[in-house]
Amino acid sequence: MKTPIIIVIFSFFLICCESKNKSEFIGTYEIKQSSDSLLFSSATLKIISNNKYEYKGKDLEMNKSYFSNGTWKIKNDTLILTTNKAENCYFIKETISMQCENFSKDDYPSIVTKPYTESNLTIKNCTPKDRNTFYTNLNDEKFYLKNGKLNYLKRNIDCSKYFPEIEFVIKKQN
């Protein structure tokens, strides 16, 4: 008799903790990349309670806009985004942050930034109608909560190690 009661209490505790953890991530976030007073990009990431997300942004330097939508899940204290397959033809912007390549692979790198890859398409061999709108690939994009704030878990090819003056700021709007 005691075993079923303990199982029910334990299950209730797990469900309550999971929904509290989920609710911490729900909301709209403003994401900005800047250096000193120069703003490179601005975006919003809306985490919706039905495990969906919407992402929209603008690259102010390159005059390009980007978006994506998809699903999210929580693993421990990490929010993981997965992009839906695009229904229309767009060029692909890989990830949220600016990406770099170090071609020399040494301490004195020859760095090339690659904010957009116009060779990757959402649909193979299609022709995008709009060359200034990109679909952002957020597959396996990760964020974590620390002190109640959402933080971006940078990918290996993120430019921040080459350009420490570039700030990546995420603020919750609601």
Primary descriptors:
single chain, 174 residues, mainly beta, eleven-stranded mixed beta sheet, two-stranded antiparallel ribbon, 1 helix, 13 strands, globular
Structural notes for this entry:
The chain has 174 residues and is mostly beta strands. The protein has one domain (2-172). Helix content is 14%, strand content 48%. The chain is built from one helix and 13 strands; from the N terminus they run αβββββββββββββ. The strands form two sheets. Strands 1, 2, 3, 4, 5, 6, 9, 10, 11, 12 and 13 form an eleven-stranded mixed beta sheet that branches.
Quickly describe the structure:
This protein has one helix spanning 2-25; strands at residues 27-35, 38-48, 52-59, 64-75, 78-83, 91-94, 100-102, 111-113, 117-121, 133-137, 141-146, 149-153, 167-172. By secondary structure, the protein is mainly beta.
Topology summary:
Layout: H1 2-25, E1 27-35, E2 38-48, E3 52-59, E4 64-75, E5 78-83, E6 91-94, E7 100-102, E8 111-113, E9 117-121, E10 133-137, E11 141-146, E12 149-153, E13 167-172
Parallel strand pairs: 4-10, 6-10
Antiparallel strand pairs: 1-2, 1-13, 2-3, 3-4, 4-5, 5-11, 6-9, 7-8, 11-12
Provide the succession of SSEs: HEEEEEEEEEEEEE
Unreliable residue runs: 6-20
Overall pLDDT confidence:
79
What structural class do you assign from the helix and strand content?
A: mainly beta
Q: Percent range for helical residues?
A: 10-25%
Biggest beta sheet attributes = 11 strands, mixed
Can you count the helices? Answer: 1
Q: What is the gyration radius calculated from CA atoms? A: 19 Å
Strand content: over 45%
Based on CA inertia axes, which overall geometry fits? globular
Q: Could you tell me the number of beta strands?
A: 13
The number of domains: 1
Q: Give the distance, in angstroms, between the N- and C-terminal Cα atoms.
A: 46 Å
